[in-house]
Amino acid sequence: MKRALLSAWMISTALALTAACSDDASTPATVGEVEATAKPSGTVMDADRALTRRDEALAAARVWNPPAVPVAQANLRDNPSGPMSVQADQEVTCRFTPQEVSGTTPKFNCELPGGEVVKVKYGTANPELRAEVAATRLLIAFGFGADHVYVVKRVRCAGCPVFPFQSLKCLRKTGLKSACFPGGINYNRVVDFDSAVIERKVEGKKIEGTPDQGWAWYELDKVDPSRGGSPLAEVDALRLMAVLLAHWDNKAENQRLVCPPGAEGPDDTCTRPLAIMQDLGATFGPTKVDLNNWRNYRIWADGKSCRVSMKSLPFGGATFSDRQISETGRLLLLGWLEQLSDDQLRDLFEGSRITSFDQVTAAARNPDVWVAAFKEKVKQIRDGGPCPTAS
Fold this sequence. Notes:
By secondary structure, the chain is an alpha+beta fold. It has helices at 2-21, 31-36, 44-59, 128-142, 164-174, 177-180, 232-245, 291-296, 327-337, 342-351, 367-383; strands at residues 91-97, 107-111, 117-122, 148-151, 154-158, 190-193, 196-200, 205-206, 255-259, 274-277, 307-308, 323-324. The chain has eleven helices and twelve strands. Strand 2 (107-111) and strand 3 (117-122) form a beta hairpin.
């Protein structure tokens, strides 16, 4: 089976290279384009080793680290602090990078003046932009791993087509630059995106046995504290957080396993692997920033047994299997949630622009209504205990 997969990959790569060589050479391939077709290890033995290392990293994975500031002091209104400093009222200029992108949310990669390549997600009618900002700010405030997502006034992209996501999808399907970028990429032309966010990845090397492998939620059972992984309380707190957010689009590629800088060990091992959620646009719904459905979605499938389920959400729960949350996990997340003030929650929904999104009801534009819905979910978590000891 593994030999067949490897052969299939080699054939598909050869076809892609053939198409690229026969295409218009006016725009040279970028580093990102090469990375987008990065191959697995060259032999079955190498592939087996990569899978083994990935399994070992998952067993030793952490899902939580102490946050930079106490939860009660977390700033949920403004963009994250750190190496990239940008305010919500700022314009950001960048240079289009024709790297392959996936998913359904309009996006493209863009090089900042300092050379860093970030992902730009855009779209006036795209609720995922708001949801991802709010969800990542909450996760980071609690100490869970998440990419930093920045609200900006405008992205000014040199070289962008008018519809970059569609052009990149065309390139991915055909490999023909001349057809997908008529006239080539003109870096003297600037296209503005007034409704956009910038995503900056958590630093670290991806740990995967196959390309874009990620991790599925049922695989969290493999996390082993005796091998350095997070204890059950932290893992269950993360599971319960996913339920609170209604994170139904939880296919494996929407989570990733990374090795943070400084944690690289010998022979491609990692001393402190980190398991994070990386795509949180389909939250606060389930139909993405949908107050009514999010408010009506209950935390517990069975409060007495502390069982959670996503089977009623799209994809029938996807990779998130029904789970009984431990009492330590419930209390851990509850302790963080109860530290959040009404002002912080109001900042969360206003700062992420959830309340400014053009929604059907007037209530969905009122931050106090979102705050009340959030606090009701916290109450449900509080009322669900004490959770029985797992047998």
